């Protein structure tokens, strides 16, 4: 595949991520179809890092005035949920962690449990309504809709229920040395850095 096709897919995927709140995998596949690359193998699509670079460029160009405040609101909401679900060693992942989220982004929280049903039981005990979404890559996924007063609208929280042992490999950085997820303490540091 020519590199300009990679660039076209990455740019189209970035628009889908920002404008429609799609996750990177879904955005890449849809962008590939939209630019005429049907059914490509995973290796033929741009990397998540390439998509993220395009997302950052797109945000800087089209949402530089609104995105930082939206990101901060989502991070504060995420922190409240990390604290609320602290017994499950929660880590924030996705666009809210990586700094590319907008108000259309869902909050991705990973829970590391000894028993996969423990998170659901805890949500019930806390009176939190959730919907089991099924599995994504073999990981149980739960959806919670919660108000975000700062944004004036509800936000989707996606809880990825993982095995406790998965936490060991979860904190490996990407090829550029950035982490894919962080706990409440790391998120507090990000919020403090952004406030200075």
Tell me what the structure shows.
- With 196 residues, this protein is an alpha+beta fold.
- It folds into 2 domains: 3-62, no CATH class; 67-195, Beta Polymerase, domain 2.
- Helices cover 46% and strands 20% of the residues.
- It contains 8 helices and 6 strands, in the order ααααβαβαβββαβα.
- A 6-stranded mixed beta sheet has the order 3-4-5-2-1-6.
- Strand 3 (131-136) and strand 4 form a beta hairpin.
- Helix 1 (3-20) crosses helix 2, helix 1 (3-20) crosses helix 3 and helix 4 runs antiparallel to helix 8.
- The protein is globular, with a radius of gyration of 17 Å.
- The mean pLDDT is 89.
What is the gist of this entry?
This protein has 196 residues and is an alpha+beta fold. The protein is built from eight helices and six strands, in the order H-H-H-H-E-H-E-H-E-E-E-H-E-H.
Strand content: 15-25%
- Uncertain spans, ≥5 residues at pLDDT below 50? none
What's the end-to-end separation, in Å?
44 Å
| Integer tally of domains | 2
Oligomeric state: single chain
Report the CATH superfamily of the largest domain: Beta Polymerase, domain 2
The biggest sheet, with number of strands, parallel, antiparallel or mixed sense and barrel status, is: 6 strands, mixed
**Average of the residue pLDDT scores:** 89
Work out the radius of gyration: 17 Å
Separate helix tally: 8
CATH architecture of the largest domain: 2-Layer Sandwich
What general form does the structure show? globular
SSE pattern:
HHHHEHEHEEEHEH
CATH topology of the largest domain, what is it called?
Answer: Beta Polymerase, domain 2
